[in-house]
Amino acid sequence: MVEALERVESTRVVEVREDRTLVLPKEVAEALGEFSSEDILLLKTEQGILVTTRKALMNWALDGIGDALRESGVTLDELMESGAEIRQVIYDERYAQRSRT
Q1: Domains of the chain: which residue ranges?
Q2: Nearest-angstrom CA–CA distance, 101 and 88
Q3: 3-state secondary structure 2-21
Q4: Please, which residues bridge with residue 41 across strands?
Q5: Which of 7, 47, 51, 54 has the smallest C-beta neighbourhood within 10 Å, fewest atoms?
Q6: Phi, psi of 26 (to 5 degrees)
Q7: Under 8 Å between Cβ of 41 and 24
Q8: Radius of gyration (Cα) for the chain, nearest Å?
């Protein structure tokens, strides 16, 4: 937890209304960028709650996938090609039999 706290840039108090609505401080909303209410995610971690956007989470996940591909030596082109081959096998299994009957 100490390591996580060392990376904290700032803290803000969030108002929680009686109906459990969270009110984000202006600077927090600005830091999140353009978003709608459906884009905000609250992620429970070992250290507490992380507030982020759907877009930021997706970018983090895609970065992780890219890192894993680079570590395994697989290129994006190879991944795309193998996906096309797999889709063709699935298509053939599902629809080739129908065309023969």
Answers
A1: 2-57
A2: 20
A3: HHHHHCCCCCCCCEECCCCC
A4: 52
A5: 7
A6: -55, -45
A7: no
A8: 22
